[in-house]
Amino acid sequence: MRAMDLVYADRNSEGVEEFKKLIDLFPENPIGYFYVSASLQTVMDDYRNYSNSDELYRYMDLAIEKGEKIKEKGELTAYDWFYYGGAVGFRGIHKALTGNWMGAFVDGLKGKGYLENALELDPEMYDVYYGLGSYYFWKSLKSKVFWWLPFVSDNRQMGIDMIMVAIEKGKYSKKDAKLALVRIWVENKEYDKAFAVIDELEKIYPDKPFLLWLKAQAQSENSMYDEAIGTYQKLLAALTSSAYYHPAGEVECRYLMARILYEKKDYRESYAQLKTLLALEDAAGDGKLVRDLLRKAKDLKKRIQREANIG
Q1: Contact assessment for residue 46 and residue 10, using Cβ atoms and an 8 Å cutoff
Q2: Which residue from 298, 309, 285 is spatially nearest to 47, judged by alpha carbons?
Q3: pLDDT digits (tens, 9 = 90+) for 8-49
Q4: At what angle do helices 78-97 and 30-47 cross, to 10 degrees?
């Protein structure tokens, strides 16, 4: 619990060191490896900092490896199934991010089954509902083009209901489930609900990048342009002052701000943001997301040059 508090407070490195103590205590159990991997993922989500991705994958694979060894012995407890299943589902998310949709589907289905095994052994392990709810919501969202088929259902609401159970009754996943719910509300375009949870969480974590990314997105999608620019400016300050800063995060933040400024016809300020972010091209890395953002930034810069005769 101390490690979780450190991660939520943006002291991720200290949180990782605390979680590694679980590995020292239970070296053959997936729990410590799972939490180290998840903590490293938080840095990626918040700061777009992928410099520790090799370490993340190593701990994720170790969590799965430890779970498989216990499974072979037939000795998995409810907690073992929970963390083993969580790691497999976690791996599925990363496969989806790299375009391996078949691998993501297989891991997602496996992870779901393992979490259900945990719940079967301990029906009061309410944290499991966070993983199951996430599975049902995101699987439904990504499969919605096939809803007309008889074997594909829209289980988004069921997923949301499960995550609410984890928020109300979970022991370890309450905060993560709330953060996940913000992303779901924004993705589901239920902005009033998203803003309500953001307002609640911002009182505790006023500068948490994860919340600021989603808040600015929701404001932008609601044409609340001035508010969105203010949120992106706050986010930019949080990113650039952090020990976890990476230029990729600054590139994304400045591009999204430049796009809003363009919509507001503030071409000069939009152009200035684009110039600043394009100067970070070499330092930002060559990840697919960064490459796409830089390409879009260059296109927008040319458009402003044509339309506003700037540069």
Answers
A1: yes
A2: 285
A3: 888 999 999 999 999 999 999 999 999 999 999 999 999 999
A4: 30
Concatenate the DSSP letters of all residues of 141-182 into one string.
HHTGGGTTSTT----HHHHHHHHHHHHHH-SSSHHHHHHHHH
Count helices and strands (H / E) in the chain.
15, 0
Cβ burial 120-143 (10 Å sphere, 16+ → b, else e): eeeeebbbbbbbbbbbbbbbbeee
pLDDT band at 194 (very low <50, low <70, confident <90, very high): very high
The residue behind tokens 């995101």 is 138
The H or E element that residue 95 is part of is helix 78-97
- pTM check: above 0.85: yes
Q: Which residues contact 233 (CB under 8 A, 6 or more apart)?
A: 257
Supply φ then ψ for residue 208, to 5 degrees. Answer: -70, 120
**How far is 89 from 80, CA to CA, in rounded Å?**
14
Residue type, 280: L
Q: Give, as one character, the DSSP assignment of residue 146.
A: G
